[in-house]
Amino acid sequence: MKTEFYQTLNRQAQALLEGEDDLIAAMANFSALLNDNLADLNWAGFYIKRADQLVLGPFQGKVACTRIDMGKGVCGTAAALNETQRVADVHQFDGHIACDSASNSEIVIPVRRGEEVVAVLDIDSPLLNRFDEDDQIGLEMMVKSFESCLFAQIANK
C-alpha cells in the first residue's frame, strides 16, 4: 500500500519539477507536496549546505533552527555521513537539536548533486516511530527523482 502511495506522490513531484530549474522554487513546492500528503507531520523542508553548516531553506511548519553545524543533530549527521537518518525517538538521539519540542520522530535524507551533499530533506513528526522502512524507501526514491529532475534541468540551463 505504501509503495503505491509513494509512487503516486513521486509522479506528482516529478510533474511539479518538470521544467523548473530554480532550486528554491523546487524545494518550496516539494516540501509543500510532502506536507499536504503525508499524515502526522509537524515539519517538512530543506536545509541547504553552505560551507560547514546547513542553512534553513524552504519548508512547511513552525519556525525552525536557522543554522545547523555539519555533524550536529539529526540533519547535520545525515549530511556529514551522507546517509539517511531515520530516528524513531529523537529524544534518544545523542546531540538532537530540538527546534520544535513537539517533534518526536524524524527522517533526514541527503540531497546530492553527483556524490556531493548539497542539502538535506528533513521531515519531523509529533508521533514516536512515525517513519518506517517503507517510508524511508519511498522518500529516498522521491529525493532521487528530485535530484535527477532538478539538477539535469540546471545543467541544461
Task: Provide an overview of this structure.
This protein is of the alpha+beta class and 157 residues long. It has one domain (2-155): GAF domain (Beta-Lactamase, 2-Layer Sandwich). Helices cover 40% and strands 27% of the residues. It contains 4 helices and 6 strands; from the N terminus they run ααβββαβββα. It has helices at 2-17, 23-37, 73-81, 133-155; strands spanning 43-50, 53-61, 67-69, 85-87, 105-113, 116-125. Strands 3-2-1-6-5-4 form a 6-stranded antiparallel β-sheet, sandwiched between helices. A hairpin with a 2-residue loop joins strand 1 (43-50) and strand 2 (53-61). The longest helix is centred in the C-terminal third of the chain and has 23 residues, at 133-155. The model has no long low-confidence stretch (mean pLDDT 92).
